[in-house]
Amino acid sequence: MPWQSVTLPATADEAERLSDALMDVGALSVSIEDAAAGTDYEAPIFGEPGMPVDALWRDNFVVALFEQNADVHHILSLAAEHAVFNLPSYVIGLVAEQDWVRLTQSEFDPIQISTRLWIIPSWHDAPDSKAINLKLDPGLAFGTGSHPTTRLCLQWLDQNIQGHESVLDYGCGSGILAIASIKFGASSATGVDIDPQAVITALDNATNNDVTIAFYTTENDHSSPADIVIANILTNPLLALAPLLAERCKSHGRIVLSGILASQADKVIAVYSSWFDIAVWQIDEGWVCLAGEKIL
């Protein structure tokens, strides 16, 4: 059975009110998304260290899911009345019923990152048994190796870890970068993420790959300064986190930043140049990886 998906624009003041009202009048689920996501105007993740805490983004999309035969217009009208909200133009789409597990699995094959590194979902055999094979399933946390930003970070680690370094993966997501660091020879690795679910996923992935790594939420961060600090996030959070990441990098240590569009690289370099001799290391599909050495 397919479902109906409805997307409505809403301001920060309206979004939560509308979300609650939609759930009260029959929506199966409701999410709130940044309307500027993927653009230069994308807002930092609220709650990120060093940033003011805002309830929501300035401009939002409220996305609600309804049963196939639901009278969407009637439900939206009721919700708008309850939320004291002037109903704007909205978009209705269909979400087809599928075997989501098989569909997800079909979209993730083994990924070769370099001559010696593969990312292997649990339902696949390793194509090269002699390679470093990271066992990693798609989960609720970002980082499976399929995105250019993750590939760039993995390739940097592959080419630059000499052995015995300490590594801090800030915004660790699935934990893939911290896990790969240990596999490449780092003496220790630590991961930090704002999302508690990401920390749980990262711990599970570390166990599945037979490595011991400490993962923390930003609220319970006990990480120490490291030889290598790597952060694959997004430009705006990276800008906000610059003082914190500089503090977490040892003197003459190295920093690696990704999640940056090529058009945003100069802005990030300008901010981080206060602490690092930093430049573009590589570009992949319009995404940039910056790398540098701490000069203080």
Characterization of the model:
- This protein is of the alpha/beta class and about 300 residues long.
- It folds into 2 domains: about 90 residues, Alpha-Beta Plaits, CATH 3.30.70; about 190 residues, Vaccinia Virus protein VP39 (Rossmann fold), CATH 3.40.50.
- Helix content is about 30%, strand content about 30%.
- Strands 10-9-8-11-12-14-13 form a 7-stranded mixed sheet, with helices on both faces. The chain has a 4-stranded antiparallel sheet with strand order 2-3-1-4, covered by helices on one side.
- Strand 5 and strand 6 form a beta hairpin.
- The radius of gyration is 21 Å and the shape is globular.
- The termini are far apart.
Low-confidence stretches: 46-53
What share of residues is helical?
A: 25-40%
Assigned CATH superfamily of the largest domain: Vaccinia Virus protein VP39
Task: Identify the CATH architecture of the largest domain.
Answer: 3-Layer(aba) Sandwich
- Roughly what fraction of the amino acids lie in strands? 25-35%
Please report the distance between the alpha carbons of the first and last residues.
Answer: 60 Å
Q: How many whole angstroms does the radius of gyration measure?
A: 21 Å
Number of strands: 14
The 3D shape can be described as globular
Report the structural category.
alpha/beta
Q: Kindly state the mean pLDDT as a whole number?
A: 87
Order of the strands making up the biggest sheet = 10-9-8-11-12-14-13
Task: Enumerate how many helices there are, as a single number.
Answer: 8
Query: Under the CATH scheme, which class of the largest domain?
Result: Alpha Beta
Number of domains: 2
